[in-house]
Amino acid sequence: MLVVQKYGGTSVGDLDRIRNVARRIARYRDEGHDVVVVVSAMAGETDRLLKLAYNLVEEPSPRELDMLVSTGEQVSSALLAMALNAMGYSAKALLAFQIPIKTDELFGKARIRDVATARLKEEIANGNILIIAGFQGITDSGDITTLGRGGSDTTAVAIAAALGADVCEIFTDVDGVYTADPRIVPKARKIEKISYEEMLELASMGAKVLEIRSVEFAKIYGVPVHVRSSFTDEPGTMVVEEDESMEKVLVSGVAYNRNEARISLYGVPDRPGLAAKIFGTIADAGIVVDMIIQTGRPDGRADMTFTVPKTDYKATLKLVDKLAPELSIEKIEGDEDIAKVSIVGAGMRAHPGVAAKMFQVLADHGINIHMISTSEIKVSCVIDEKYTELAVRALHEAFGLDRAPEEETL
Ligand code: ASP
Ligand code: MG
Questions:
Q1: Is 7 annotated as a binding residue?
Q2: How far away, in angstroms, is 152 Cα from ligand 2 center?
Q3: Signal peptide: which range, if any (predicted)?
Q4: Is 208 annotated as a binding residue?
Q5: Ligand 2: distance of its center to the CA of 388 in Å?
Q6: Which pTM value belongs to this model?
Q7: Is 173 annotated as a binding residue?
Q8: How far is the centre of ligand 2, averaged over its atoms, from the C-alpha of 42 (Å)?
Q9: Bond into 100 cis (ω within 30)
Q10: Mutation to probe ligand 1, out of 37, 152, 213, 227 (largest number of atoms < 8 A from CB)
Q11: Residues within 6 Å of ligand 1 by CB
């Protein structure tokens, strides 16, 4: 088997942990597998480097910033390879330019364009365990780039895709993906198997186990991803192509997001071009709008409600306040104390009534719904923030997630 493994910052956080990771890799090797490893920087290192730069100057030049923050992974990959070598295994650390992993020129959030496989294959054929520095890439003109925070996950999946690996194992400090945040729902269970689509919906909701771009990558190239703990040998969660067994599960997980705020515009003239103007202005400010609802009114005007990240709430209010007179918007109102609660499940495609059941569960608990949005495999409701825990727990129970999946009924 060819296995790509990625170890996160906590897993290589100190020398003892690096030794532990080396032992785990050695075990795979002893079982006869080819192993390619991708590492993050040691825990806290990327933050430390960023702080250095921002303490020095207000706006570090993006090219130099990438040259700086990419060094964290150079350190951890070299140390891990050394540890393996000292144990008698032939291991080699590689940086992105040595492979090369080519990216575009967007410093700080570069996208991988190509992973060359010739050198990788040659080194593997020569019996080397490869320890690749995650998070970094190289442009056509030879400049170092980084892929954005958490980018080592994407490096690992990209390497696994390029090499056609049998599995990409993401070792982290949690033991898998859960049916809900275990801090809120003590009965939350580890999910054995989840589809890429479900994982994307859960990840975008803040179930931050895998970096979202790595899941998109895995989906496009069909890379099976195994999210698991580097502190145990227990299997974690497999993220794979959807199969029939998944369709039987109505709801795979309940997610919540408290990082958004709601803004409502009342009495917007119902004319072509107004939504384009409003949301164009917000987008130009680099603010990402999530849910949008427009309702017509009998008086020929419309009400519009949308959500933005809490951190952009004040800036967005300022923007729409400025537009209000020009567009003759009657009233603007907002609320920061909201939460978005979502249920996600591949089985929703085949089973009607899931959304209705969600609304009923919320109603039974006296929770008012402010906004609703749906996709094929997700239903989201915006509610008052103070009901977040109650809603998540009630939905978790009502959709049978407190029990094993086989027992589930609608
Ligand atoms: N070291 C980088 C970060 O902290 C990349 C990663 O850990 O995946 O964001
Ligand atoms: Mg990380």
A1: yes
A2: 7
A3: none
A4: yes
A5: 27
A6: 0.87
A7: yes
A8: 9
A9: yes
A10: 152
A11: 9, 40-41, 46, 72, 134-135, 149-153
Please name the residues in contact with 38: beta carbons below 8 A apart, sequence gap of 6 or more.
Answer: 4, 5, 6, 7, 132, 133, 134, 152, 155, 156, 159
The answer to the question of whether 6 is labelled as a binding residue is: yes
Q: Which residues pair with 268 in a beta bridge?
A: 302
Give the domains, in start order, of the chain with CATH numbers.
2-173 (3.40.1160.10), 244-410 (3.30.2130.10)
3-state class (DSSP) for residue 242: coil
Asked whether residue 46 is marked as a ligand-binding residue, the answer is yes
**Closest Cα to residue 104, out of 59, 138, 62?**
138
Token pair for 40? 């993050």
pLDDT per residue, tens digit, the chain (410 aa), is 999 999 999 999 999 999 999 999 999 999 999 999 999 999 999 999 999 999 999 999 999 999 999 999 999 999 999 999 999 999 999 999 999 999 999 999 999 999 999 999 999 999 999 999 999 999 999 999 999 999 999 999 999 999 999 999 999 888 899 999 988 999 999 999 999 999 999 887 666 788 889 999 999 999 999 999 988 999 999 999 998 888 888 899 999 999 999 999 999 998 899 999 999 999 999 999 999 999 999 998 999 999 999 999 999 999 999 999 999 999 999 999 999 999 999 989 888 899 999 999 999 999 999 999 999 999 999 999 999 999 999 999 999 999 865 544 55
Query: Which atom of ligand 1 approaches the CA of 41 most closely?
Result: 1
Residue ID of nearest Cα to ligand 1 atom 8: 150
Taking CA atoms, 65 is separated from 136, 155, 304, 396, in Å, by 12, 19, 41, 43
Centre a 10 Å sphere on the Cβ of residue 165 and count the other Cβ atoms it contains: 22
In angstroms, what is the span from residue 328 Cα to ligand 2's centroid?
Answer: 47
Closest ligand 1 atom to 47 CA: 4
- Given the CA of residue 147, which atom of ligand 1 is nearest to it? 5
Place of tokens 């009901």: 387
